[in-house]
């Protein structure tokens, strides 16, 4: 059955994005390598960085592979990393640090709060060996949007390397990577750019990339090695997800056609607002009260006591929508994403279905 994905990725893509995958492409072919180069250049434009200072590197695998390529190959034995976390993806950064035997300090806050810039300053003051910060921008666990600007400002002032997991935000909200002074930003093909799953990408400051070569803990995730090969003529080191690459190129064209990141952000933000306003009227309380992002929203289970997720999920799916279970530890909630090829009419239709389910359920 055909349904719309109200999930944080993979998400609903356009028919035209899906259609371009009906071609089998050779990876050695110049035309294909040129597509890779075009994508890399376009990503730099979206990140608002210059080709002189920054490069973009595509990496096979899902988003986690891209984050781990940075975490496991761009930190020096002398580095001391501060990891800021308020959710599962922040905790994943910590797991990666452990696998790579990095020296790190963890600053963790509750999942419905953002890492506090003042507290970050205090941690850095107390531990002067800290040389780098890693954080998540949009924490998909809850839907909260962290204060990247404030943390980036601290990194700049203290001259710290800044690594940002912008997986579920890049392409869906304006971000001037150069101005923010981000050294490594990671996102993937199947989030706000609205492509299909298969690769991640890293926007990297060239100076740092060059300085950090030769420290990889993994062959396949060696970011510098991938850069070196790809930068030559657009050739990936190992088999690349060819169909995904074609779909991504098309998705980038469609982002342009929509009016760029500003226009996409406006669509996401207004659909998210509509969703939250109307869900509140139906009695569904949003978990995040402050700093809610425009991409995905966590809602508490309704209080009528007999709510269980599975029948609710099945009902919505039967009526054309797939949502996500909650991910916040020890909280009964579910999540609704609004990124992807999702328009106001889809949210309106979802709300009709949601209302019907809620009324039926309350009559029981
Ligand atoms: C989606 C996502 C990831 C990557 O998850 P994968 O399952 O590897 O694609 C990482 N961080 C955040 C914040 C995400 O939303």
From TrEMBL:
Top EC class for this record: transferase
Organism in which the protein naturally occurs: Enterococcus alcedinis
InterPro entries noted in UniProt: Aminotrans_V_dom, NH2EtPonate_pyrv_transaminase, PyrdxlP-dep_Trfase, PyrdxlP-dep_Trfase_major, PyrdxlP-dep_Trfase_small, SP_NH2Trfase/AEP_transaminase
NCBIfam families cross-referenced by the UniProt entry: PhnW-AepZ, PRK13479.1, transamin_PhnW
Coiled coil start-end: none
Protein name according to UniProt: 2-aminoethylphosphonate--pyruvate transaminase
Chain ranges of the Aminotransferase class V domain: 30-301
Modification N6-(pyridoxal phosphate)lysine occurs at: 191
Subunit structure: Homodimer.
Catalytic activity: (2-aminoethyl)phosphonate + pyruvate = phosphonoacetaldehyde + L-alanine
UniProt-listed Enzyme Commission number(s): 2.6.1.37
GO terms for biological process, alphabetical: organic phosphonate catabolic process
Gene transcribed to yield this protein: phnW
Binding site for substrate: 335
Cofactor(s) needed by this chain: pyridoxal 5'-phosphate
Keywords, sorted A to Z: Aminotransferase, Pyridoxal phosphate, Pyruvate, Transferase
Source taxonomy: Bacteria, Bacillati, Bacillota, Bacilli, Lactobacillales
Keyword Mitochondrion: no
């Amino acid at each position: 059955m055909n349904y719309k994905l109200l999930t944080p990725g993979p998400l609903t893509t356009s028919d035209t994005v899906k259609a371009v995958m009906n071609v089998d492409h050779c990876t050695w072919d110049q035309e294909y390598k040129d597509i890779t180069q075009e994508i890399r250049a376009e990503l730099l434009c979206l990140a608002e960085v210059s080709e002189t200072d920054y490069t973009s590197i595509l990496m096979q695998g899902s988003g986690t592979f891209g984050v781990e390529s940075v975490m496991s190959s761009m930190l020096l034995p002398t580095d001391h990393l501060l990891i800021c976390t308020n959710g599962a993806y922040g905790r994943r950064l910590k797991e990666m640090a452990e696998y790579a035997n990095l020296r790190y300090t963890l600053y963790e806050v509750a999942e419905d709060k953002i890492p506090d810039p003042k507290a970050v300053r205090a941690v850095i003051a107390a531990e002067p060996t800290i040389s780098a910060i890693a954080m998540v921008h949009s924490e998909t666990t809850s839907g909260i949007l962290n204060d990247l600007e404030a943390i980036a400002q601290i990194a700049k002032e203290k001259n710290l390397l800044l690594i940002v997991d912008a997986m579920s935000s890049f392409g869906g909200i304006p971000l001037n990577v150069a101005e923010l002074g981000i050294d490594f930003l990671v996102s993937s093909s199947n989030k706000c750019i609205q492509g299909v799953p298969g690769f991640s990408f890293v926007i990297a400051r060239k100076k740092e990339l060059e300085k950090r070569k030769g420290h990889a803990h993994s062959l396949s995730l060696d970011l510098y090695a991938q850069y070196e090969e790809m930068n030559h003529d657009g050739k990936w080191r190992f088999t690349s997800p060819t169909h995904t690459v074609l779909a991504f190129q098309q998705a980038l064209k469609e982002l342009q056609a929509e009016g760029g990141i500003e226009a996409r952000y406006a669509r996401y933000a207004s659909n998210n607002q509509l969703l939250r306003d109307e869900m509140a009227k139906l009695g569904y309380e949003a978990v995040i009260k402050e700093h809610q992002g425009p991409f995905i929203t966590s809602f508490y289970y309704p209080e009528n006591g007999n709510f269980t997720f599975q029948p609710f999920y099945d009902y919505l799916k039967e009526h054309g929508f797939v949502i996500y279970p909650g991910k916040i530890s020890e909280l009964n909630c579910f999540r609704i994403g609004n990124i992807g090829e999702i328009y106001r009419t889809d949210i309106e239709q979802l709300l009709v279905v949601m209302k019907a389910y809620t009324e039926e359920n309350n009559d029981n």
